[in-house]
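Two folds, back to back.
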Amino acid sequence: MTLYPINAGNFKLDGGAMFGVVPKSLWTRTNPADNNNMIDIAARCLLIEDGNKLTLIDTGMGNKQSDKFYGYYHLWGNDTIDKSLAAHGFNRDDITDVFMTHLHFDHCGGSIQYNKDRTVLEPAFKNAHFWSNKEHWQWATQPNRREKASFLKENIIPMEDCGQLKFTTLPTKGEILKKSALGFDIFFANGHTEKQMIPMIEYKEKTICFMADLLPTVGHLPIPFVMGYDTRPMLTLDEKEKFLNLAADHNYYLFLEHDAHNEIITVQHTEKGVRLKNTYTCKDIFN
């Protein structure tokens, strides 16, 4: 097995929204804001090469939305999925599976694109299966009013229409982890959105955890530091505490999708709770 970071692009979000009720004087210590209160955010995806499988976890925002839409998110940098794939010797047609942690636009928007004439929506990875789970799919296709702006039909419905959508198995009562059809374990978290999936990949005697929106950045390590975007923040508190305790107990390596400046971290138990232990680049761990 070989792992590759795939940078789908960078953007900015309001720091207050990213940290909810946490005072700005606290969250700016780890996530400095610009004059408009915006902080740096990455869309760092993960590519898994394992035998004849080439699995991409999450796909970023994509490029099919309007200039007005992207103007809200202040895109910066030159990273794209295509550039990142090419840097590792791959292209979109090589991808066999796209695993989506959840269907918010900044995690799955790159899965669907317009054709050359911009008249028809089509899979951006024509040879890949798209993986979600039944409960989250229902949640996304019949969205609540709070998340409606994050679940965009043009990102989601074409996956089913093209016949390439698959669902991974949900955990049964009492199960903390569930093995996916792609070979890695999944931790399911419901505080941010229903049945968000956190992949846990066994790699060279390490456990690499793709943290998605359960832990967006290093600055979110303290348990009360929860995003304003979470639909059930009290549940996020419990899920974060459970997962971070496991991570500290077992020395998990936490792959941060949204932290623009920290790629992989480990954590440890302290008197103040679970806190940062070490910071690594992807090259440190994957090479």
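---
second:
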Amino acid sequence: MLSLKMALFATVCIALVIFSERLFPFALFSKKDPPPLIRFIEKYIPSMVIAILIVYCLKDISFAASPFGAPQLIGVAAAVVLHLTLKNPMVSIFGSTIIYMVLSRVLG
């Protein structure tokens, strides 16, 4: 069991580590342009994440048993609709993931 002092110390340490991780790219690239690899990652990683989530979502569909893949297909449709309407990859990723998770618990 952690004491209150130890828990607060751990929280402060974790907060400092997270803050320094978030600060690092800004400190590194503030004076110059990022290298081509970083530009590539910045441009294509949201699409890659969406593709991975869709493959993960569709890998275990069973059309023979209830709910017949409804949460997965609705989640994919939500990702497409959110991405086409809002053009924000983060909203598409998180929104469709939340919809899928809720439907998989409610219907599954």
